Amino acid sequence: MPTTPKRPALSASMSERVVNNRNTGRLRRITYDRETILAVAVELFNEHGYEATSIDALSRRLNLTKSALYHHYSGKEELLKIAIERALDGLEGVFAEEGARVGSARDRLEYVMHSAVQRLVRDMPFVTLLLRLRGNTELERRALQRRKALDNHLAELVQAAKDEGSLREDIDARTTARILFGILNSLVEWYRPSGILSAEQLADQVVAVAFKGIGAPES
Length: 219
Fold this sequence. Notes:
Blueprint: E1 14-20, E2 27-33, H1 34-48, H2 55-62, H3 66-72, H4 76-96, H5 105-122, H6 124-131, H7 138-163, H8 173-190, H9 199-214
Antiparallel strand pairs: 1-2
Helix pairs in contact: 1-2, 1-6, 4-5, 4-6, 4-7, 5-7, 5-8, 5-9, 7-8
């Protein structure tokens, strides 16, 4: 007797659902891994807020059973933790790069801004979620402390550039750092990667506009 070929087994890191193919009428299987589930969860958190998003809602969006979701993640908090760590690790990593540590303070500051724009675009859904945290849980409060540390790093860099004479003398370093981060944070509200500007072009324009205002006057 002819045998039916066996379908390849799923790995422990994957789940699947069966849907009807509208074109052929046949059933087809859609496979989900941890990364896909995380992306959909972040999408829901950004649409409805973390507190208002339930595991039931995520299960419905994916058309997966809750038991399949719990196979990959322990719950909402783990999803939030991984998502905000993705955003923070990326932004913190900018300050560890060679361009942020070598050269004049002005060059390092411009490098940080340019790279931060590109990192924000790459991780935009995760950064959007990070920016909407309100400190309602211990996890969120820890994330906000890490955000504050980024503000401090940028303020120190602004002060160093001011001290070397490459920025205007009449600016306050901490206020300027907040303004610069405000420019970065605003990008999540209007920038679309599918638009006319690439991430590189966007970074160039942000740096050009920001430093036109705070740069020291040319003699």
